[in-house]
Amino acid sequence: MIKIPAFIIGGLLILTGIAGYLLQDPGLSLEINGPLAEDTVLTLSDGNDSYELDLGFPSSDAAGEHAYWIIYNLNLNHAKDASQGNYAIDEGATDRGYVKKSFWYASSKEDTMDKLIQESENYQGVGNQEAVDIDWATVDQNSSTIRFVFKNQVQSPGPITLQSTNWKNIDISPAPKPNAKIEFKKSWTAFIPGILGIIIILLTIGAAKMPHAHKHFMHVAVSVGLVGFLAVAGKVGSAVSEMNWLKEDPYMIIHVSSLKPTTMLLSAGLLLIFVILCVVSFIEARKNRVAEEKKKPITTSSKKESSEKEDSKNDSEKKEKTSTEEDKEDSKKPLSKESESSLSTGKKEEADKKANKEDQKSKVTSSSDNQSKKDEAVKDPASKNPISKPTISGSEQVKKPIKTNGEASDKIVSDKKEIPATPPSKDPKKEPTPSPKQDEKKDNPKSSEEDKKAD
How far apart are CA 166 and CA 121, in angstroms? Predict the structure, then answer.
């Protein structure tokens, strides 16, 4: 969400810095650490014209008072006249003897600048309010700054320089020699908004390329934006008041550049917008993270349930494995008397069941065999062998006399048929199954009577 706005804001800050650097007027800053030498002569030059600074009449050794006299005389006696003459020419007043030319003006900072503004207010309020007394001997006693600005109105060839016969108590490194010249340059501080824009863009790119560190990159970016906003916004007021001070009485420098407060105000606005967007993005990210965390417990609970089920399955499988292993170990161990007796009874029961099944099978097969023999006898009446009487169950021997064609025959046919006795069933509910031969007797009562007669 913040990526595209960050690129846009960063790009605008870079453009602001470039414009502020390229369009600014060349300047020079001097730091005065004490009273200037009495023989000091400061001369400004633009290649065509030059102007000698009036050092004024300081009554103390305070650096602030010496800076005040230089600034006051330059703005009132040089910059005011040149700016108003150029303005009159621009408005068409060419018959008053004005000549368009370039000029210099000066300002300061910190306590010296505050006292200069207060003096201007005292001048403007003469007769309307009580003036505030200023003790210049106590203003920036050890150090004061003078900021010279060159306003190029006639395309001066340059170089724009400052020359001094004596550099005593003027802090310049390296220290120049007497009558040496120092050139005016553009200040790199005008590009500070562009530097902030580059940092924001680089941090945004880093956040996009390294998602794991996205949060940290954006926190650094918003920190840079917030610090930059506070720093720039804190100087916007002083820049605006400085511009108004130069344009108002007593100096009335009409052509004072408004670029500095404009770039500061624009930079502060862009940085504030960036900080607000970052805060909104962080709030939305926080809400999304909270929503995701609320959804997570549902999924985690389902995962926990599935994991619990898997754990229960694994536990049951482990228990089964352990039980089987215990059974194997128990089978390998020697059995006690009670266990042996229980096993023997179980084996006997199994053997009895098997014997019952075999008896039933043998009965069925014997009945089927007898039936087949009877069928053969019926089919073949010429056969001499009489129809055999069904055997009686049990292990007894049955002797049956058989008569053929009215003649007595002493032949005794002994059919020995041994049928194993069925063991008694242990289950009282189960009734003994009737033998197939008994069924045959029930089904064929006539055949049984004929056999009796024959006997």
Answer: 34
Structural domain boundaries, residue 222: 1-24+188-299
Q: What is the pLDDT of residue 66?
A: 95
Q: How far apart are CA 26 and CA 151, in angstroms?
A: 8
Q: How many percent of the chain have pLDDT more than 90? A: 45
Query: How many structural domains does the chain have?
Result: 2
DSSP for 359-372 reads: HHHHHHHHHHHHHH
Question: Domain check: are 195 and 171 in the same one?
Answer: no
Q: What are phi and psi of 285, to 5 degrees?
A: -65, -40
Residue that is last in its domain, among 299, 323, 348: 299
Cα distances from 185 to residues 68, 88, 107, 297, in angstroms, run: 23, 29, 16, 65
d(CA 13, CA 196): 7
Q: What is the mean pLDDT of residues 214-235?
A: 92
Q: Which of 190, 263, 207, 197 is nearest to 228 (CA)?
A: 197
Residues 107 and 37 reside in one and the same domain: yes
Say whether pTM exceeds 0.70: no
